[in-house]
Amino acid sequence: MPINVVPAASFLLLQALVFSPTSLRAGEGLSLSIAPAYQAYVYSEPSVMSIKGQMKGFTGALQYAFEEHRHSLRGGYFFGEAMEYTGGKCSVADPSQCQSLIADSNDKYYYGEYISQWLLTMDGNPLVWFNAGAGYRELHNDVNEASAYKRKQSYIYAVAGLSLEHKFLENAVFYTNFYGRYLIRGNNTSYTTGIGFDEDLRFTQKKGYGALLEVGVKYRMSYVDFGVELYADGWYVEDSNHITATIQGASVGKFVEPLNYTAAIGARVILGI
């Protein structure tokens, strides 16, 4: 499912305020970043359903730099109101009988990560860093339809990548960051008791990948740090295990959390102290 970012692209640099994991300050010590955020977003289960729209939120991070190392704790929260759900409306008695459905969906997700960076180039310009860490991400779907059920999806994952910084003015640096993600474990809960099932369905997803690419410019001012950044963020997660569902003790078939992908495109204006 393609992402429609044309309406947002003309003012992303003004409205998108998000933390960049690369510290704007040189040297050692603590730094703090916190900011609101804006992005175009899509979640899709091909041939099953999709949710797309604009998301707002905020992010923040605490970073400690020491010699050739950086250590960061960072997190964020995003939400979308009246996002577009396109999928099906299925019979509870016979889930194979479905009709097309378009409805609003109130979606939100949050994440937390620990990232450690090691400087690979001791001298010269540009500087190259190796990044590694781990994270947790949790997504909630809430489609505004009487026959729909709420869902929660969480990922535990590892992170590895590279960062490059090129100084082109006295207090200005161009940078790019790439983070690859490897899914350690994914859990999905479909709250199907809300539509008459005997139990909620709890799935496990064991194979998936993600990536984050950031490109930006950062500038150090007298009292605060400032930067502008474009980014692309995404996930690809394969099918879960299969679970047999029942209604009043009678089986209504096997269910699976299908292959899905998530993508977000946006911009960030970084403020730090």
Report on this structure.
This protein has 273 residues and is mostly beta strands. The protein has one domain (29-88, 100-272): Lipocalin, CATH 2.40.128.100. It is built from two helices and 13 strands; from the N terminus they run ααβββββββββββββ. The strands form two sheets. Strands 1-2-3-4-5-6-7-9-10-13 form a ten-stranded antiparallel barrel. A two-stranded antiparallel sheet has the order 11-12. A hairpin with a 7-residue loop joins β4 (98-119) and β5.
How are the elements arranged and paired?
Layout: H1 6-9, H2 12-15, E1 29-45, E2 49-66, E3 69-90, E4 98-119, E5 127-141, E6 151-169, E7 172-190, E8 201-205, E9 208-220, E10 225-237, E11 242-247, E12 250-256, E13 260-272
Antiparallel strand pairs: 1-2, 1-13, 2-3, 3-4, 4-5, 5-6, 6-7, 7-8, 7-9, 9-10, 10-13, 11-12
Number of helices: 2
Q: State the helical fraction.
A: under 10%
Strand arrangement, major sheet: 1-2-3-4-5-6-7-9-10-13
The structural class is mainly beta
The percentage of residues in β strands lies in over 45%
Output the CATH topology: Lipocalin
Ranges where pLDDT stays below 50 over 5 or more residues in a row are 1-26
The helix/strand series, from N terminus to C terminus, equals HHEEEEEEEEEEEEE
- pLDDT average, as an integer? 86
**CATH homologous superfamily heading:** OPCA outer membrane adhesin/invasin
Shape: elongated
Rg, nearest Å = 21 Å
Give the beta-strand count. 13
How many strands, which pairing sense, and closed or not: the largest β-sheet?
A: 10 strands, antiparallel, barrel
Overall CATH architecture: Beta Barrel
